Amino acid sequence: MIRVDNVSKRYGSTLAVDSVSFEIGAGEIVGFLGPNGAGKSTLLKMMSTWLPPTSGSISIDGHDVAKEPLAVRRSLGYLPEHNALYEGMRVDRFLDFMGKARGLRGALLKERIEWAVDKCSLQDVIGKRVSECSKGFRQRIGVGSALLHNPPVILLDEPTHGLDPLQVVAFREFLQSLSEGRAILFSSHILAEVVAISERLLIINGGKLLADSSLVELKAGADSRGIELEQAVLEIVRSDSSATAGATR
Amino acid sequence: MSSAAPTHSGFVSPIFLIARRELAAYFDSSIAYVYTIAFVVLANSIFMNEFFLTGTVDMTGFFDLLPFLLAFFLPAITMRLWAEERKQRTVEVLLTLPIRTIQAVLGKYLAALALFLLFLVGSLPILFMLLSLGDPDPGLIASGYIGLVLFGSLFLAFGSFLSALSTDQIVAFVISTVLGFALVLFGNDQFVAVVDGVAPKLALGTLLLENFSIMPHYDAFVRGAIDLSSSLFFVLFTGLFLWLGALVLERNRG
Q1: What is the average pLDDT score of chain A?
Q2: Torsion of CA A160, A166, A167, A169, to 10 degrees
Q3: Which of A117, B49, B75, B126 could form an SS bridge with B176, CB 3.0 to 4.6 Å?
Q4: Is the Cβ pair A101, B95 closer than 8 Å?
């Protein structure tokens, strides 16, 4: 459902994403792990149609990002990195606007908003302005609005940012309940979160994809060497010296 | 697995959706109330001043002076359209929805246009007063209002384009106001005479009037002529700036 083929992104002389390729099928929850500035958000922005790749191709649910951006956006639930929301809008009106912008109308729109309010526990803030909501609520509003149209592909950039530990657990269960038939890719720079939510890890640093491995394989590799999973991941992140030093070419 | 959303929602529907959201944002933040009241008070004051000076039952003097006021008020409407979206980073949310960039541009523009038309509704008491006092030329007044709407439409598209270029709405406002004011001033007879007088051989004032001012096109409407070439001028440049705004937003993604 997600196919990223040899994708690169260059900003002037800086190579932010360097020839990255991977595929994610239906039913998979994949964690995108890497330190800040690794290239995770840039890659997600390209997958969301917000940024055009410098080279390579991306396909979402069978639609090419460059050739069919509107079809891609219809298939996509995307939570951007900073989860920017319209501050002055009431939460219910914001959800209504986002639903209508995705073509939902009438009873279906009402049903999907009720679903988002229920699943993201937004009952306490539904009549409030977005600017009055806490960071945790704002994050849940962003996630709820991204999923209103029941998209087959979900991209979430740092979705647990601002959530307390209990909310992270609830979010993990929520994401796992959504996984059937969907491809879900979420980014984080916190290993514990990625391990708790996903079955497969993409590890990126300096714009390069350093590992694409199942959690089981990574754990088995770490166990066989008698080290913790965290240590094994750190070694992968540090394995590319040019990547750790920065990706300026 | 398939999306719950229908695949097609038409070209016009998203434009009105965004226009409604934008218009609500104007009124939610009280911007619309403040601007409308300030504009109506100033516009009516300008008319009253002209009315008592000339003593004629028409709105020509009012239509002559209003562009100076609009050169300030219209950038105040458009400054936030895109600069605020970029500053708050909501532009990424908006332009990754299944909506074309030009639809988003048109939606926001439509909201700004609706607010401008509300400004003009605030000048209708002048019309009613004139009708009760005498026998004004309705064709001349209608033509003047058509000119104002076309003038405002162009300025709003220009302001929207400059807002798309900026991340700071104050910068967008200052640039729009300065450029807009210059375009109006270049068409002012007194300004042209003064600038021509500084260097008569260059005739710089006339040069600016003939090549850069939009006022000759607007003046045609004020004098009662609904001129096709002037109408086309306003419509084409309005379309051009809206298209350029969409182009800038597309190129400046990220």
Answers
A1: 89
A2: 70
A3: B75
A4: no
